[in-house]
Design a protein that fits this description.
This protein is an alpha/beta fold. 37% of the residues lie in helices and 16% in strands.
Length: 374
């Protein structure tokens, strides 16, 4: 199969879908790999490194999209890339379609095979292609929150770990998944006091076992959330419902409960955000204020630590990319339930129930699409 690796064009996105060692693995299985010129620079990989691994370097993005059967990316296509996609082409990347009607309509109209990293799911409920980026974003969220708490940047002027005789900052985390756990771990290590809100009692018990005593788990409800908002110096949005738009747990009215200069870091912005006042920002212009509350809502947080993120991403995506290249998407989907759950759109049909619900469009199971177009 011909695999194309384009240079990411989202603002301040420095990751690349594959490291040179991954190219070597694909080439060893007989696949052709096309890499756009400069694709790896932001992660510290030279064109020569890709050439030595067996890739062909293309200066022309249009040529790469025209020749590639599988587009292997990090972030969703932007409008300038829409016309480059074609019917039957496999798009393997983070898609986050629930809050993206224009992209969804484009992929349906183009009859692209869209497999989203974030909805690939193992039988035990793990999301192996989302986990490493969630780990980075969770750890990063606390560093970001601590930074923007400083008074010169618009924050309350509270040091996250406090000092002897002065209490530390209070961090409130919504969601106890991978993002929430990693955020709590880092915040606890920095000496903050943490309230972690979760809806799954079994998960809370597990978090209590894993996390230190300065983390308190609470059953999430409107009342518990409102009480925590009154105490919060930093609020971390770490809510995820697979494939669906994130529920807006924090309304604009609730911001009035928070202290002026408190910081919101909404990691769930990719799926629409769990705060009503969330809107996507970039690393170039990451924050804005609403009602005296600082919001950090960068939609590609791990892109700031691109080298770490690129290695971590290749580690988990490469086996799936190999399976798609070796078998083709139909055989790979039929033989791998995790990939089947990753299929969001195929040949003009929505093949993930949460995406279909988000756009009020019909859902067609992947097996039916495959049978229809066998």
């Amino acid at each position: 199969m011909i695999i194309g690796v384009p240079k990411e064009i989202k603002e301040q996105e420095h990751r690349v879908a594959i490291i040179p060692a991954g190219v070597h693995t694909l080439r060893a299985k007989g696949h052709q790999v096309l890499v756009e010129r400069g694709a790896g620079e932001g992660s510290g990989f030279s064109e020569e490194a890709y050439r030595r691994a067996g890739a062909e370097i293309l200066p022309d993005r249009k040529q790469l999209y025209a020749e590639a059967e599988l587009i292997y990316k990090v972030k969703e296509p932007l409008p300038s890339e829409y016309d480059l996609l074609r019917e039957g082409q496999i798009l393997f990347t983070y898609l986050h379609l629930a809050p993206a009607p224009d992209l969804t309509k484009t992929l349906l109209a183009k009859k692209v095979i869209g497999i989203a990293y974030e909805t690939v799911e193992t039988l035990d409920g793990r999301k192996p292609l989302l986990e490493p980026m969630s780990e980075i974003a969770g750890k990063m969220s606390i560093h970001v929150g601590a930074y923007y708490l400083s008074k010169p940047l618009g924050g309350r002027g509270v040091l996250i770990g406090g000092v002897p005789g002065v209490p530390p900052a209070t961090v409130v985390i919504l969601g106890g998944g991978t993002v929430g756990y990693n955020a709590a771990k880092v915040a606890a290590g920095m000496g903050a006091w943490i309230y972690l809100l979760e809806v799954d009692p079994a998960r809370m018990r597990r978090l209590d076992e894993l996390l230190p005593e300065n983390v308190t788990t609470l059953m999430s409800s409107t009342m518990s959330l409102e009480e925590c908002l009154k105490r919060a110096d930093v609020l971390i949005g770490a809510v995820l419902i697979s494939g669906a738009r994130t529920p807006r747990l924090v309304t604009r009215q609730m911001l009035s409960l928070m202290k002026p200069g408190a910081v919101i870091v909404d990691v769930s912005v990719d799926q629409g955000g769990c705060v009503e006042t969330t809107r996507p920002t970039t690393h170039a212009d990451p924050v804005y204020q609403v009602d005296g509350i600082l919001h950090y809502c960068v939609a590609n947080m791990p892109g700031a630590f691109s080298r770490t993120a690129t290695f971590a991403l290749t580690n988990v995506t490469l086996p799936y990319a190999l399976e798609l290249a070796d078998k083709g998407w139909r055989r790979a989907i039929k033989g791998n339930g995790g990939l089947s759950r990753g299929l969001n759109v195929a040949l003009g049909q929505i093949t993930h129930p949460a995406v279909a619900k988000a756009h009020d469009l019909p859902y067609v199971p992947p097996d039916e699409v495959i049978k229809e177009h066998a």
